[in-house]
Amino acid sequence: MTRSVRTPLLPVAAAVLAAAVAMPGAHASSHREAPFIATQPKVDATDFYMFASYEPDRSGYVTLIANYQPLQDAYGGPNYFSLDPNALYEIHIDNNGDAKEDLTFQFRFRNTLKGVTLPIGGKNVAIPLVQAGAVSGLASANLNLAETYTIDLVRGDRRSGSRSAITAAGNGSATFDKPVDNIGTKTIADYAAYAAQHVHAVAIPGCSQPARVFVGQRKDPFAVNLGAIFDLVNAPVAVITDPALINAAPNTIDDKNVTTLALEVHKSCLTQGSETVIGGWTSASLRQGQLLNPLPAKGHQTSAKAGGAWVQVSRLGMPLVNEVVIGLPDKDRFNAGKPKDDAQFADYVTHPTLPALLELALGLPNTAPTNLPRTDLVTTFLTGIAGVNQPAGVVASEMLRLNTATAPTPAAAQNRLGLVGGDGAGFPNGRRPKDDVVDISLVAVMGGLCIANGDANALGLGATCKPSAVPLGDTALKLHDAVDQAVVPLLPGFPYLATPLPGAK
C-alpha cells in the first residue's frame, strides 16, 4: 500500500527521548508529569498499552490497557482508590491515519454508599470502613461501597459522534461491577480469584465478535527508579552502557499499585477497510466547573457539584513523552491537546533537548546526535515505520501505532527490546507490558537506531539518519536504564497485569 506522510513534524517523536531520561531506572510513563495533573491523581493516566493478544486461543484479538492513579500504596485505606464519578475516562482509536479518533470507548463510574451500620447501644451507627467483613464474589453484601461503571462506544467525534452502550454478553446489562481494591488477605482471602470474577464478557454494538473488559486495581507493571532519574540521572556511565547490568538498580515502584481499564476487542472491530494499522491513546476529562458545598448532605460522598462541558486534563499514547520530552511550559497544554493538533509541539521532537541534558548530566560532551532535524525520531514515534506500522496517508501525531496484521509473539519468546531486538510484535509496533520502552527509547534518542543493522534506510528512517551523525557510535545500542522491565511479574492472559499487592498479608 502507498504510504504518504503529511505534516511530519510532531511532538511525540519525542516519546523516544522520554525514555532517555530514564537512565538509572526509568520512571513510569506518566506519573505526575504535568503541573495540573499532579493535583488530580484520580485522572492521571500512567501507562497505555496496545498489543496483539498473546494469550493462547485469542488469535485475532487486540488488548487495550489504560492505567490511572499512580503510586498507590496498598495500605492506602480506609477509602483506597476508587475512580472519579465526575470524570470521563476514554480510550481512542484512529483507524485511518488522519490523527482523529474514529472509535472512542468511554468509561463512567458510580460509587454508591450502602450505609452499612452496626447496632451500638440500641442505635444503628454507620461504620467508618468500606467493608463490614470478608469480601468475595460480585457485589458482596459486606461491601459498604459499591463501585460500578458503564462503557459507551462512540463512532466518529468523541463528543458529537454516534453513541451506543456496551452490554454484558449474558444478560444485556449496561452496568458492570468493579472489584474493591486489595484491602488485605483477611478481607479478601484469594484476591486473584475474586478479581477474575470481574472479567466481563461483553457485546460491542456493530461488532460480531464478543469482547472482554476488566476494570480494577493491578500491580503497577512498569519498572522505574524515579528518584535517581530526576536527580540529574544519578547513575554511573559504566553501568548504563554495560548490557550485563540491565538489572543493576531496584525498581522504585515495585511496591505500588495502579487502577486498570482493560478491553480486549477483535481486530476486525477496530480496523477500517483494508488498513491494518490502528493508532491508540487514552485521555481523561473533568467538567469545566465545580461548586463546593460547605454543608454536604448526610450520606453523600462528596461536597462538590460538577457541571459544564468536558475539559480534557490527561492524555497518554506513546510512553514518557510529557514527562521528559515536552517542555515544562507546555506540559498542561499537551495534556489538553488532541493528536490532530500536535504540530504545535514539533520543535520538541525535531530538536530534542534530552540528548543535550544527558550530555550535561552524565559529563559526556559532544555525544548528542547531530542529524538535526531528527526526522528519524519523527518516523519511529510519530508516523510509524514504513512497512511496519505506518498507515497510508498518515498525519504525524502522538499515539501508539499497531499493525494488527502482525502475529503476536508468545510470552516466552518475546524480546524485551521489541523491534530493536528483532521482535516485530513489540514496541514501537504497539506496546506490550514486557516491552522495555525506556531502553528502546534511550537507544533511539541517542541515535542507536541510525546504526542498527548498519543500514538505517532499511528501517525506513530516512536519509538524514546517518551513522556519522551518532557520536556515541555502537555505544548508543548498549544504553539502558539499569532496571529490567522484563522481570516484572505478569499474568499469562487477559488482563495480563499482575494481581495487586495487598494492604496486609
Task: Present the secondary structure layout.
Layout: E1 5-6, H1 14-20, E2 45-52, E3 61-73, E4 87-94, E5 103-113, E6 117-120, E7 123-126, E8 145-155, E9 162-165, E10 167-168, E11 176-177, H2 191-196, E12 200-203, E13 211-219, H3 226-230, H4 237-240, E14 256-266, E15 277-292, E16 304-316, H5 321-324, H6 331-336, H7 346-350, H8 354-362, H9 375-383, E17 394-395, E18 400-403, H10 437-445
Parallel strand pairs: 1-17
Antiparallel strand pairs: 2-3, 3-14, 4-5, 4-15, 5-8, 6-7, 8-9, 8-11, 10-12, 12-13, 13-14, 15-16, 15-18
Which key phrases capture this entry?
single chain; 505 residues; alpha+beta; 18 strands
Q: What is the number of helices?
A: 10
Query: Count the strands?
Result: 18
**Can you tell me the number of structural domains?**
1
Shape type? globular
Radius of gyration using CA atoms only: 23 Å
Span of the ends, CA to CA: 55 Å
The percentage helix is 10-25%
Q: Report low-confidence residues grouped into runs of 5 or more.
A: 1-28
Biggest sheet architecture: 8 strands, antiparallel
Please, what is the average pLDDT? 87
